[in-house]
Amino acid sequence: MSAIKNTIAMDFRTGVVIALILFATVVLARLVGRAIDRAIARSERRGEADTTGLRFVRRCLLALTYGLGSGWALVQVPELRIMGHSVLAGAGVLTIVAGLASQQVLGNVVSGVLIVIFRPFRLNDRISVNGMTGVVEDINLRDIVLRDPENNRIVIPNSIITSNSVVNFQHTDSRVRRRIDVGIGYDSDLDKALALLVEIVLAHPARIDGRSRAELDRGDAEVPARVSALGESAVALSTWFWARNVADAAVIEGELLRSIKLRFDQQGISIPYPQRTLSFAPGAAGVVPAGTAPTAD
């Protein structure tokens, strides 16, 4: 009877200790989370847009706090320690699988730390990696989350980010240079078309002058326009413009294309459909000479 009472008392004390440890873990995690949230809020109020590092540290500290608290609680139960050692010692296949999975997870965590340290991109940067393009919404221990132009969320493991080339459209400069291509007929006035392209782009109020100091010193044109190719049915013309950011560039491009079409129509400059001229050898089977009516078989 005395042994039973001692066992009950010991189990009760163990349960109380575990409950206190878990309670302290939750309280500490909340305090840490709130402290970092306040730091993030202060950074945003000061206009510091890059809170990537703080958010990443928040996740790391919360994961560490919960992990240590849970481990400490389990240590209080000797039976769980013994059972855990038995499972790890006896389950060889599961151990291998778990090891491989842990290796992959650890690789993602290490890659996430490298991303935060070297900062190839930040939150709200527009990037392209492995054929996927979007705005960085979140960076965590395992992956990053991109928001694409259709408002879909793309989740990419951190290890893929660090093992592939990343295109950052606004790493040090958010400005965008965009190219517009248009084809005109071979019988259209080429010089007039080029002059119209420059005039239309220069007239757009939202574009900016993106020339460098060296280009200004050389006297380079603010809006270049030139022949880029001689196609099968059209002369390809190209012009370039600068915008403050990707969003402005998309709007400007659409408006410029509309203006180019309307002005070319007004000035009699044709934008031809794709067309080909076919030549047949004289006497080829099935070919009817010009001006001859086909005959029924």
Topology:
Blueprint: H1 2-45, H2 52-75, H3 78-90, H4 92-118, E1 126-129, E2 132-139, E3 143-147, E4 153-157, H5 158-162, E5 166-168, E6 176-184, H6 190-202, H7 213-218, E7 225-230, E8 235-243, H8 246-266
Antiparallel strand pairs: 1-2, 1-5, 2-3, 3-4, 6-8, 7-8
Molecular structure report:
The chain is α+β, with helices and mostly antiparallel strands and 297 residues long. The protein folds into three domains: 7-90; 112-172, Roll (SH3 type barrels), CATH 2.30.30; 176-266, Alpha-Beta Plaits (2-Layer Sandwich), CATH 3.30.70. The protein is built from eight helices and eight strands, in the order H-H-H-H-E-E-E-E-H-E-E-H-H-E-E-H. A five-stranded antiparallel beta sheet has the order 4-3-2-1-5. Helix 1 (2-45) runs antiparallel to helix 2 and helix 6 packs across helix 8 (246-266). It is elongated and about 105 Å long. The model is unreliable at 83-101 (pLDDT under 50).
Which CATH class of the largest domain applies here?
A: Alpha Beta
Distance from N terminus to C terminus (CA atoms, Å) equals 115 Å
Q: Determine the mean pLDDT.
A: 79
Count up the helices.
8
Task: Name the shape in a single word.
Answer: elongated
Helix content: 40-55%
Category by helix and strand content:
alpha+beta
- Strand order across the biggest sheet? 4-3-2-1-5
| Unreliable parts | 83-101
The number of domains is 3
Give the tally of β-strands. Answer: 8
User: Cα-atom Rg, whole angstroms?
Assistant: 33 Å
Largest sheet: 5 strands, antiparallel
CATH topology category name of the largest domain: Alpha-Beta Plaits
Judging by the overall fold, what is the CATH architecture of the largest domain?
Answer: 2-Layer Sandwich
Order of helices and strands: HHHHEEEEHEEHHEEH
Percent of sequence in beta strands:
15-25%
